[in-house]
């Protein structure tokens, strides 16, 4: 079973503080549903208004084994799916509680 790292949990707290959890949840949901297809830049990292928000999101994804590209596409490692599933559940619960 996949678990989030301590660094990911700290970034999730920062995401909660910056109120970007709904955007991150949407991004995870869209990447999982689209698989390896490109989402388009307007759906990806460019949807974050502040550069720091995009950097936090990029870091959380990379720690889960997914590299987000500015064009909206993502590169998944072999072990990424279970890590992204754990990230999705965490974001979903934070979103419900906030």
TrEMBL record:
Pfam families according to UniProt: Gasdermin_C
Boundaries of every Gasdermin PUB domain copy: 2-73
The UniProt record lists the keyword Membrane: yes
Alphabetized UniProt keyword annotations: Membrane, Transmembrane, Transmembrane helix
Transmembrane segments: 73-94
GO biological process, one term: pyroptotic inflammatory response
One Gene Ontology molecular-function label: phosphatidylserine binding
InterPro entries the UniProt entry points to: Gasdermin, Gasdermin_PUB
Top-level taxon of origin: Eukaryota
Family annotation (PANTHER family): GASDERMIN, GASDERMIN-A
Name this protein carries in UniProt: GSDA3 protein
Native species: Chloroceryle aenea (American pygmy kingfisher)
Lineage of origin: Eukaryota, Metazoa, Chordata, Craniata, Vertebrata
């Amino acid at each position: 079973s996949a678990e989030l790292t301590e660094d990911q949990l700290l970034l999730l707290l920062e995401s909660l503080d910056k109120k970007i959890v709904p955007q991150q949840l949407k991004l995870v949901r869209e990447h999982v549903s689209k698989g390896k297809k490109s989402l388009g830049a307007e759906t990806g990292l460019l949807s974050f208004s502040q550069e720091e928000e995009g950097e936090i999101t990029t870091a959380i994804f990379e720690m889960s084994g997914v590299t987000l590209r500015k064009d909206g596409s993502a590169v998944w490692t072999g072990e990424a799916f279970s890590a992204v599933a754990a990230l999705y559940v965490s974001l979903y619960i934070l979103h419900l509680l906030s």
